[in-house]
Amino acid sequence: MKNKGMHKTTIELTEEQYFFLKEKALSLQKQRKNYSIVSIIRDLVERDRKKWNEDK
Fold first, then answer.
1. pLDDT, tens digit, 9 for 90 and up, residues 9-52
2. Which residue range forms the structural domain that includes residue 48?
3. For residues 37-56, b (16+ Cβ closer than 10 Å) or e, as one string?
4. I want to staple 40 with a disulfide (CB 3.0 to 4.6 A). Which of 20, 25, 30, 49 is the partner?
5. Quick one: pLDDT at residue 1?
6. Would residue 32 count as lying in a domain?
7. What whole-number distance in Å separates Cα of residue 9 and Cα of residue 52?
8. How many domains does the chain have?
9. According to the model, what pLDDT value does residue 3 have?
10. What is the rounded distance in angstroms from the CA atom of residue 45 to the CA atom of residue 40?
11. Torsion angle in degrees (nearest 10) through CA of 45, 22, 20, 43
12. Distance CA 9, CA 16 (A)
């Protein structure tokens, strides 16, 4: 049974965007030692999605 609060997201990134996102996630991981890179990237994408929806 799927968790209703979860959804699968696929995004396309340029190499520059991927590099920026990866560097940002790595720097945040140093601050949050017990967080995985994937969870940090998910949080960054979700935060950006919310901001984008608010600005619409």
1. 788 889 998 899 889 888 888 888 888 888 888 888 888 889 98
2. 15-55
3. eeebbeeeeeeeeeeeeeee
4. 25
5. 47
6. yes
7. 15
8. 1
9. 59
10. 9
11. 20
12. 20
